[in-house]
From TrEMBL:
One of its GO terms (cellular component) is mitochondrial small ribosomal subunit. Transmembrane segments: none annotated. Pfam families: Ribosomal_S2 (PF00318). Belongs to the universal ribosomal protein uS2 family. Keywords: Ribonucleoprotein, Ribosomal protein. InterPro entries: Ribosomal_uS2, Ribosomal_uS2_bac/mit/plastid, Ribosomal_uS2_CS, Ribosomal_uS2_flav_dom_sf. One of its GO terms (biological process) is translation. This is Ribosomal protein S2. GO terms for molecular function: structural constituent of ribosome. It comes from the Eukaryota.
Length: 389
């Protein structure tokens, strides 16, 4: 019984020594049963962690190719895959900038191509507008007299007149009705009188007559010049000089006069015979604005020169020989009317030249003796012989 405490003391010392060894702390005090339990648990945890750290990981080994049979590829059954392009990154920044620019241009070109395709596709959808109004088309290529329709006159605004308070009662036969205090001109009357005026212009041009186109309002210059070119006539787009017909020798005496044959070739041998001749008067005058050219129309009446004029609801139709009831305030309407008359003159000139090529004349030509006669006395200069009519 005396050895039991001694054994217990030895056992206690052994436990303390083991605890100091594990904890590496020499001053640890451990009691009997509690210390032994803590030490055992701590040692168990530490031993598991040490075992996990010292455990060797398995190393996977590759078998040698001689240990197994290597499958051989069959070209007949193997699917051929195209080699992928290897993109090697460039270290040059300039090359990268150029490459990015090319990529951007390619993307823009593809987007443009897609947009063009969509535009072609969607342009076929919906209604098709076959004809559209072009203001320059009436001047560049005016319609012919055969193209006159009520729809064309209506679209040009030739039916619009003035207020009912400004109307001239002599135009009552041309008026279709009244709408919102404005007189409406009959399109049937406009078409009929326009066709008649076009026929007059064509016949005068076919007989070698001189046609004068006059339009002095702002914006009428181009249409007047174009009509004169078609009819091979003359034009005036500025203010009419009073006395140009009644006193033409004083006002237009400095203008050159020439003599032409049937095919419009100039004859120089008659130039000296024209020195004492009076100024040439037109055979037909086309006026687009009669209200501003009353003096011109009066002089034409004094010299028996026929006239054609656009007569609005506030104008006097008796001032012209061949009135055309229409709207004279609209440039679209006046351009259309003067363009049709110019086309009529072109057709007449074509007929005259075709007849001249065949040796025919559509008018009575003047002879050299008649050209030398005094225009006032009708006799040759220096003789008493009178002109035989």
């Amino acid at each position: 019984m005396a050895q039991a405490p001694r054994c217990r003391g030895v056992e206690r010392q052994a436990r303390q020594k083991f605890a100091r060894t594990i904890l590496n702390t020499p001053s640890v005090q451990v009691c009997d049963s509690t210390a032994s339990m803590i030490v055992r648990k701590f040692g168990l945890r530490q031993s598991r962690q040490l075992l996990a750290l010292t455990r060797q990981t398995p190393i996977s080994r590759r078998f040698l190719s001689t240990e197994f049979e290597t499958p051989v590829a069959n070209p007949a059954t193997e699917v051929q895959t195209p080699p992928k392009e290897t993109i090697v990154p460039s270290e040059n920044p300039l090359h990268e900038v150029v490459q990015a620019s090319r990529t951007q241009k390619t993307a823009e070109a593809e987007a443009w191509g897609r947009w063009v395709g969509q535009r072609r596709k969607f342009n076929r959808i919906g209604s098709e507008v076959e004809e559209a109004y072009d203001p320059e088309m009436v001047i560049r290529s005016p319609p012919r007299p055969s193209d006159i329709t009520l729809e064309l006159l209506l679209a040009s605004g030739t039916h619009l007149g003035h207020s009912t308070s400004r109307w001239n009662p002599q135009n009552s036969r041309y008026i279709f009705g009244i709408r919102e205090g404005v007189h409406i001109i009959s399109l049937d009357a406009t078409a009929a009188y326009l066709r008649r005026a076009a026929k007059v212009v064509e016949e005068v041009a076919a007989r070698g007559g001189i046609i004068l186109f006059a339009g002095t309002r702002k914006g009428q210059k181009r249409a007047v010049v174009r009509a004169a070119e078609l009819a091979k006539g003359y034009h005036i787009f500025e203010r009419w000089i009073p006395g140009a017909l009644t006193n033409g020798q004083q006002i237009l005496g400095h203008c050159e006069t020439m003599v032409v044959n049937a095919v419009d070739e100039k004859l120089e041998e008659f130039k000296r015979d024209l020195a004492d001749r009076p100024s040439v008067k037109p055979d037909l005058v086309v006026c687009l604005n009669p209200l501003e050219n009353v003096v011109m129309l009066h002089e034409c009446g004094l010299n028996n020169v026929p006239t054609i004029g656009i007569i609005d609801t506030d104008a006097d139709p008796t001032r012209v020989t061949y009135p055309i009831p229409a709207n004279d305030d609209s440039l679209r309407a006046t351009d259309l009317i003067v363009g049709i008359l110019g086309r009529a003159g072109q057709a007449g000139q074509k007929r005259r030249l075709e007849a001249a090529q065949e040796g025919k004349t559509t008018y009575k030509p003047i002879t050299a003796e008649q050209l030398r006669l005094d225009p006032f006395t009708g006799v040759l200069p220096g003789s008493e012989q009178k002109k035989q009519f």
